[in-house]
Design a protein that fits this description.
binds iron/sulfur cluster, two-stranded parallel sheet, about 350 residues, alpha+beta, 8 strands
Amino acid sequence: MNDAIRQRARELGFDICRITSAAPPASAQHLTDWLSAGHQGEMAWLQRNAHKRIDPQQILPGARSIICLATSYHAAEWQAEPTSGQGAVARYARHTDYHDVLAAPLKELSHFITAQGDSNTRSLWYVDTGPLLERDLAQRAGLGFVGKHTNLISRQLGNWFFLSEIITTLELPPDKPEVNRCGTCSRCLSACPTNALPAPFQLDARRCISYLTIELKGAIPVELRPLIGNRIYGCDDCLAACPWNRFAKEASLLHPHRRNDLSTPELLSLLKLDAPGFKQLFAGTPMLRTKRRGLLRNVCVALGNTAGKEALPALESAIQDSEPLIAEHAAWAIAEINKRTAG
Ligand code: SF4
Ligand code: SF4
């Protein structure tokens, strides 16, 4: 039956399909310790769902198996770095929201799996908003291994893929787990601009640029702003540094949903966006998540770190913005540019 499920997954566009049992993930204790240490910052939702993350039975009573799926979002053309005046956007976000793209094939595969059982069989699908400790389960399913940067790496896809899962009451033979294959490498730790990876497998989310530019709703701590560089939505540095990317495979399912216009957007154009303009530009993408105030806050930081005097008029206007968050970060950016260009 596993082969039939894998075959159907491939037909639907998934790159990897592996199966594990529905036993609780091994890192449940690690999550509990991580939350107790307060590493989640403002991500209170992690705390709220903790019991479900720890035990799949809390999500689907009677669950027996979990099907773990990987979908590549690699685009070879995206190796280019942004040039002066442009912002950097994490690669996963340069698409139509993957939750929307993956929903239809996941639903279809879920029906297929349910149809393999009897009338009592039930299945549920998730794309990373689900409360599962999914990286752990994916490693147990043999899909990949958790690297020292705490993300999942696949020997077939490198670092550029989305994870999703289907939990089912169907009993399926589990695949062999994967083991960590980082060896003596520590490139991701050295690549991190904010030292958010102080030791292997330890992420301090409060210093991570993905957290600071996406999850954090308020002001970015002043001491971290210069380290953010031109990154305006997320950060790929630890993923990009990983040597396993030599196996990255060009995306198929996600390919038609690329938004190349978001790969290196012009910072000054973004700073001019009003509320309707923001909604129009980012409609259907993950970048709506920060709202206009969050994104323009990040744009101000990027300008403060990289722009010259040509950015001052637009930043002067941004100081008048009705959002105090944007106004404060614009004032910071002006001071930084003046400091840098003085003399
Ligand atoms: S995403 Fe960026 S800031 Fe966060 S841990 Fe990786 S390299 Fe560091
Ligand atoms: S960069 Fe090296 S240490 Fe970091 S996850 Fe990749 S293989 Fe592991």
